[in-house]
Design goal:
Blueprint: E1 9-17, H1 24-32, E2 39-40, E3 53-54, H2 68-73, H3 76-91, E4 121-125, H4 131-139, H5 148-152, H6 156-165, E5 171-174, H7 180-193, E6 199-206, H8 211-219, E7 247-255, H9 256-261, E8 268-277, H10 287-300, E9 310-312, H11 319-333, E10 342-343, H12 346-349, H13 354-370, E11 372-373, E12 395-396, E13 401-408, E14 412-419
Parallel strand pairs: 4-5, 4-6, 9-10, 9-13
Antiparallel strand pairs: 1-7, 1-8, 2-3, 6-7, 8-14, 11-12, 13-14
Helix pairs in contact: 3-6, 7-13, 10-11
Length: 423
């Protein structure tokens, strides 16, 4: 591949809402301390349901970011994306912190720094979009809301973030199952690397805590039947499915020189990305496809498997998925696979679907920045077929280059390669 004149791409801002906290700082703090965000569902009555736990947001207040009118006209997956995008923009120094945010007649935020965002891009992924609003409206006996269609479409997360922040550049919504958030970051990386724009807001958002979604994943055999906070147990011998969660994470990607010129803080650099499909099955992953995605991402960074210091795994806690991911890592890394530390943050966050890939990339950047690896909790009984170096307690580690990987229904596989900036 010809890489002449390709731009460097760095991350200058992160914002999130997750089962671990209503800001990225809160979520990272909880993750380092091995705190689970999984609990009994309180969003709706689970009587008669087999699955009663999830990773719900706790104490999230959308009024910090949206008006009452906007809240009622938009699905929560958009609320979460807007909140995360605003926090990420503040974190990157692209917005001055204001509480509450004031808006002009067009609904955009009035902020003297927002001009820096006008020519930016927005790429946000979601697997389920406005599914909770769709469920609510279908159950209504009164007339259907006039806002049902626009509020639930996948692209509304990216387009409404653009509206709130006054962004008039590239705008795209991605729906690629559980890889959607990782794909959004990867495609944003490509935009900046090829010189299309200097700043892109990207990530994933999801609000799937509703009866139809939980019963749907449950009937498909994907959810754990364990109804307590230890249910998400990636790579454990007793694992039996994932725990569904909600939330969002938005990263600010920026061209390196642009970031340096405005003295922005930098979390790390994105140096590789792959997006490939298995062409195999709707729900059953293929080890060759996952291995190919990992290898292609490393190749795209101009590196070799031996250069990788840490893997933030997809690690959903499904019996088949964790085994296939383990096998794929062994195929790519050979004997070194046993010496690479691996963690799964889904043991604490649950599976945020599109939100997971984005927040896992952000956590990976923090692992490299602070030279620590957060634990995989609930891994108590080692599985003979999952026999790699899964980190179960907070570990100090000199991490220079990492990969963060996401694999989804339909055999979609996306992998990011991330680098500490001082390397």
């Amino acid at each position: 591949m010809l890489l002449l004149n390709m731009k460097r791409v760095v991350v200058t801002g992160i914002g999130s809402v997750s089962p671990l906290g209503n800001s990225f700082h809160e979520s990272w703090h909880a993750l380092k301390h091995g705190i689970s965000g999984i609990s009994q569902i309180v969003r709706f009555d689970t009587s008669g349901m087999k699955w009663k736990i999830a990773g719900e947001l706790k104490g999230f207040n959308a009024l910090r970011y949206l008006s009452n009118k906007e809240i009622h006209r938009l699905d929560p997956f958009v609320h979460y994306a807007v909140a995360s995008a605003i926090m990420a923009s503040e974190d990157a120094g692209l917005l001055l912190p204001i509480s509450p945010f004031s808006t002009n007649e067009e609904g955009t935020i009035e902020n003297e720094s927002s001009e820096l965002l006008r020519g930016a891009g927005v790429i946000i992924g979601s697997s389920r979009g406005g599914i909770s609003t769709l469920e609510r409206e279908i159950q209504k006996t009164s007339r259907i809301s006039a806002y049902l269609m626009p509020s639930t479409t996948i692209s509304m997360a990216s387009s409404f973030v653009a509206q709130k922040l006054g962004i008039t550049g590239y705008c795209l919504g991605i729906s690629n199952a559980c890889s959607s958030g990782t794909n959004a970051i990867g495609e944003a990386y490509r935009l900046i690397r090829e010189g299309y724009c200097n700043i892109v807001l990207c990530g994933g958002t999801e609000a799937p805590i509703c009866r139809i979604c939980i019963e749907g994943y449950g009937k498909a055999g994907a959810l754990s039947s364990i109804n307590d906070k230890t249910a998400s147990r990636p790579f454990d011998r007793t694992r039996d499915g994932f725990v569904i969660s909600e939330g969002a994470c938005i990263l600010i990607l920026e061209e390196y020189e642009h970031a340096v010129n405005r003295a922005a803080k930098i979390y790390g650099e994105i140096i590789g990305y792959s997006n490939v499909t298995d062409a195999h099955h709707q729900t059953i992953p293929l080890v060759e496809g996952e291995a190919r995605a990992i290898k292609m991402a490393i190749d795209s960074a101009g590196l070799h498997p031996e250069n990788i210091d840490f893997i933030n795994s997809h690690g959903t806690s499904t019996s088949l998925g964790d085994r296939i991911e383990t096998e794929a890592i062994k195929i790519v890394f050979g004997e070194k696979a046993y010496r690479i530390p691996i963690t799964s943050v889904k043991s604490m966050t649950g599976h945020m679907l599109a939100g997971s890939g984005a927040i896992e990339a952000a956590f990976t950047l923090m692992s490299m920045k602070e030279n620590i690896i957060p634990p995989t909790i609930n891994l108590r009984e080692r599985d003979d077929v999952c026999d790699l170096d899964y980190v179960t307690e907070l570990r100090i580690a000199d991490i220079k280059i990492s990969i963060s990987q996401s694999f989804g229904f339909g055999g979609v596989n996306a992998v990011l390669v991330l680098k500490r900036l001082d390397v």
